[in-house]
């Protein structure tokens, strides 16, 4: 069931203290404001089935969804809503890196948009979540979501322990012109840059170093679509070899202007289809092969 709240809380302090990278941090700040009531903006419906397939949603048959490194860390709650963006004319994406200046601006926008957010308990049998959107004249807005590692009932429940482990943006601006919102699609990604990142991460950060949390299988690291040299893939990362793998992959220094893609899978995840996915990855083109692309997770970093 979906809940909507507009409570004041300690969200800003607790999540800023967690020093989250990317938009996950600022999204959590939504619970800190309650001074901007939603009026006449209509509503929007988002497909919960697609989101649950990406984040696991607490189901026993957790699978690898697009844009994530799947793992057994289940998502217990989903915070989703519409954010009026005032500080840029370029839509934010799941790969947008938020520096401290943009972080503050995004936090302010989310605080002002708190009444357009809902909390959904997972797992759920509901097909859609419906929430209010900003009124006509409010400017352009985006739909954003975060998934938390523990169940939350109000925004006050968000803290370092329940912090977001998935995040995503609908990567387009929308404006409200009628009684209902547009169709949106969110690509959820694992939040690998928390102080205590969730299981199953393999991602390069803005400093060019990789964050790895076992257990995860790294299928490939691609530099502008080409496998990096001097490393043999796949690499099955466990707690015993995590440090050595991290050191090996940190030796690769992402060149300025390049796009680095880390392709992963997670054979230990419940529901993993070994017959279908076990040898499905051959090269970069495998990531776009419609018959097997749900076997892989990816994390893209741009330098």
Provide a concise account of the structure shown.
It is built from 6 helices and 15 strands.
Note down, in words, how this protein is organized.
With 303 residues, the protein is an alpha+beta fold. It has 6 helices and 15 strands. The protein has helices spanning 11-18, 23-28, 48-55, 100-112, 242-250, 274-277; strands spanning 2-4, 43-47, 77-84, 117-121, 128-132, 141-148, 164-169, 189-190, 201-204, 210-213, 216-223, 226-227, 235-237, 259-265, 297-302. Strand 11 (216-223) and strand 12 (226-227) form a beta hairpin. The model is unreliable at 1-38 and 57-72 (pLDDT under 50).
Q: What strand line-up does the widest sheet have?
A: 1-4-3-6-7-8
Number of helices: 6
Q: Which value, in Å, is the CA radius of gyration?
A: 19 Å
Helix % is 10-25%
The major β-sheet equals: 6 strands, antiparallel
Number of strands: 15
Query: What are the secondary-structure elements, in order, as H or E?
Result: EHHEHEHEEEEEEEEEEHEHE
Overall geometry comes to globular
Hey, roughly how much beta strand do the residues contain?
25-35%
The parts where pLDDT drops under 50 for at least 5 residues are 1-38, 57-72
Average pLDDT reading: 73
Roughly how many Å apart are the termini? 40 Å
Structural class: alpha+beta
Write the layout of secondary structure elements.
Layout: E1 2-4, H1 11-18, H2 23-28, E2 43-47, H3 48-55, E3 77-84, H4 100-112, E4 117-121, E5 128-132, E6 141-148, E7 164-169, E8 189-190, E9 201-204, E10 210-213, E11 216-223, E12 226-227, E13 235-237, H5 242-250, E14 259-265, H6 274-277, E15 297-302
Antiparallel strand pairs: 1-4, 2-5, 3-4, 3-6, 6-7, 7-8, 9-10, 11-12, 11-13, 11-14, 14-15
